[in-house]
Design goal:
- It is a single chain.
- The chain has a domain of 111 residues: Nucleic acid-binding proteins (OB fold (Dihydrolipoamide Acetyltransferase, E2P)).
- Helix content is 22%, strand content 30%.
- A 6-stranded mixed beta sheet has the order 6-7-8-3-9-10, with helices on both faces. A 5-stranded antiparallel beta sheet has the order 16-20-17-18-19, with no helix packed on it. The chain has a 4-stranded antiparallel beta sheet with strand order 2-1-4-5, with helices on one face.
- Helix 5 links the parallel strand 7 and strand 8.
- The C terminus is likely disordered.
- The structure holds adenosine-5'-triphosphate (ATP).
- Adenosine-5'-triphosphate binds next to strand 2 and helix 1.
- Adenosine-5'-triphosphate (ATP) binds next to strand 2 and helix 1.
- InterPro entries: AAA+_ATPase (IPR003593), ABC_SmlMolc_Importer (IPR050093), ABC_transporter-like_ATP-bd (IPR003439), ABC_transporter-like_CS (IPR017871), Mo/tungstate-bd_C_term_dom (IPR008995), P-loop_NTPase (IPR027417), Transp-assoc_OB_typ2 (IPR013611).
Length: 390
């Protein structure tokens, strides 16, 4: 099942990469299960998911390092499914950088151009432009081991970009960098991608990285794409519980649904703006912690009832500096999380307090039942792309 966000894809005349029913088996194991994917030219697209979900295998099939078991891969409309890597207009940046240690930075960057027969002076002129683009002017005569991890990563990027590929594949390129350098490289990479206008397909298991850089992202689970769209849409209206929880903390409320609507275990009604109540067993309602409103109640009191609210007991309050996290327990046992920005006007709550937990129907979403035999069910209705005011 794939949920797409056509509106979020950049308007482009041509698709840079198209995957039609692409799968890959290793013996009996399915690494990638019939995925369809279309990337617009100039798009920054992130393939996101936990270890082993099939991200790298997908990337390797696009790069030509792995043959699909079924399906077709096209680059700018041309079928490249069976072409070897060097006959595809694609470059790959790996986590390991794969720089030549005995060559200078400049020679590393000119290497591919020289092999293609570009004259030394022209190759060096282009290489220096790209070293400048990645912030490494003046580093040309150094060798890779005389550079930091972040600088080596930039050399690998310059070396990939200097060939002007139509598509750049990046496989966890920041995996070896520490958190602070990663953060600044994310901003750099986004700037560089905008400047060169090349389509980027970026593989990562880091949801923050994917959400902060990508125009669109796809969340993979067990070889399947479970959701795909603009980061804010996938975060605000995830298609499945797996996607909701992979992208951040999510409160998942059990509900019973019938023709009269959805109800929490305490009987309070729940509605989701813009969505009709689904029928059948096992549906849940998701709501992000920062969307919950907490209102203190007299000890032992219950909320006055009404839609999209319940009563809960505060079990823990954690001060996090910019925000405070409250952990709560609903009367039927579900543990809830609420985040509040510390802007100086919030009411203090303490462990043991009884509070009303409420939320706006525009901020919640239905989550389809997950069937253990089929962890990737198709929802009855596709979640709508919806702009939600910050
Ligand atoms: N050459 C291979 N032979 C057998 N199984 C493989 C091979 N390559 C990958 N797999 C299996 O295919 C599945 C998907 O692997 P893949 O490397 O694509 O995952 P991933 O999402 O990139 O994970 P990670 O984030 O850990 O790199 C895994 O179960 C993996 O063990």
């Amino acid at each position: 099942m794939t949920t797409t966000d056509a509106a979020a894809a950049p308007a482009a005349a041509q698709s840079a990469i198209t995957l039609d029913g692409v799968s890959r088996r290793f013996g009996d194991a399915v690494a990638v299960e019939r995925i369809d994917l279309e990337l617009a030219a100039g798009e920054f697209f992130a393939l996101l998911g936990p270890s082993g979900c099939g991200k790298t295998t997908t990337l390797r099939m696009i790069g030509g390092f792995e043959l699909p078991t079924t399906g077709r891969i096209r680059l700018e409309g041309k079928d490249v499914t069976l072409l070897p890597p060097h006959r595809r207009d694609v470059n790959t940046v790996f986590q390991s950088y794969a720089l030549f240690p005995h060559l200078t930075v400049l020679d590393n960057v000119t290497f591919g151009l020289r092999r293609k027969g570009v004259a030394k002076a022209d190759a060096e002129k282009r290489a220096l432009e790209y070293l400048d683009l990645v912030g490494l002017s003046g580093f040309g005569t150094r060798r890779p081991l005389q550079l930091s991890g972040g600088q080596q990563q930039r050399v690998a990027l310059a070396r990939a970009l200097v060939n002007h590929p139509k598509v750049l594949l990046l496989d966890e390129p920041m995996g070896a960098l520490d958190a602070k350098i990663r953060k600044s490289m994310q901003l750099e990479l986004k700037r560089i991608q905008r400047e060169v206008g090349i389509t980027f397909l970026y593989v990562t298991h880091d949801q923050g990285e994917a959400m902060s850089m990508a125009d669109r992202l796809a969340v993979m689970n067990k070889g399947l794409i479970e959701d795909m769209g603009a980061p804010h849409r996938v975060y605000d209206r995830p298609a499945t519980q797996f996607v909701a929880e992979f992208l951040g903390t999510c409160n998942v409320l059990p509900v019973t649904t019938d023709a009269s609507g959805a109800r929490l275990p305490d009987g309070n009604a729940v509605s989701v703006a813009g969505a009709s109540t689904p029928t059948g067993a096992g549906w849940k309602v998701g709501i992000r912690p920062e969307k919950l409103e907490l209102t203190p109640l007299p000890a032992g009191a219950a909320t006055a009832g009404g839609p999209n609210r319940t009563t809960a007991t505060v079990t823990d309050v954690t001060f996090l500096g910019a925000s405070t996290e409250a952990t709560l327990q609903a009367p039927w046992g579900t543990v809830l999380h609420a985040f509040k920005q510390n802007i100086g006007t919030e009411t203090t709550i303490r462990p043991g307090d009884t509070v009303e937990v409420s939320w706006d129907a525009t901020q919640s979403f239905f989550l389809p039942p997950s069937d253990p035999a089929n962890p990737n069910p198709a929802p009855d209705a596709e979640p709508e792309a919806q702009e939600v005011a910050a």
